[in-house]
Known about the structure:
Layout: H1 7-16, E1 18-22, H2 30-40, E2 44-48, H3 54-64, E3 69-73, H4 78-87, E4 91-93, H5 99-108, E5 112-113, E6 115-116, H6 119-127, E7 132-135, H7 138-141, H8 143-151, E8 160-163, H9 172-176, E9 184-186, H10 192-196, H11 200-217
Parallel strand pairs: 1-2, 1-9, 2-3, 3-4, 4-5, 6-7, 7-8
Amino acid sequence: MNPPFPDSLRSQLYHSGVIAVLVLEQVEAAVPVAQALLAGGVNCIELTLRTNVAFECLKRIRAEVPEMTIGVGTILTPKQAEQAMQAGASFGVSPGMNPKVVAEASRIGLPFAPGVCTPTDIEMALAEGCRVFKFFPCEPSGGLPYLRTLAAPFLHLGVQFIPLGGVNASNADAYLQEPCVLSLGGSWLAPKEVISSQNWHKIREFATDIAETVKRIRP
């Protein structure tokens, strides 16, 4: 059975309200991005395994920005789940529900949120002991109305969702008010072009804006 997200981690993600989803192509950008997010009030990130420097970025952030909670996303194989655990990830995330990946996360004790988009996905994940899910792709699948309908048969089991895909500053308010939403996947907080231009101030501004929204809705 997959280890549940500890209550302390769930609480942190809920009150953070947003998990900054990062695609980092340069190791040197890892710490400045993390510092800018933290300065703006965002203390949780998901480092995606879409580049070959992701694990090195994780290690640098852990060493130099210890206040940041770091998850690893785009985990597609059991080996990547093990690597994430060894690198010091607090949790793992995948875009879909791969039983082999979830089983490995369970074996090594890595809290894991598989991606779900259908009732069948959720039932498969529940069978593995998961209670926190990544809802992906969120807006293309129907957004908040669809999530409410999708979640309804399972809410009595204590499930929670992390919506990602089309979630942004303009609709974050509505998602944060939804009881089944644990936190938002914030890919808009550090866009590729902003990182490339080393505009750390802009990232801090994005973080400050969403942190203020979270504080208003989830005091």
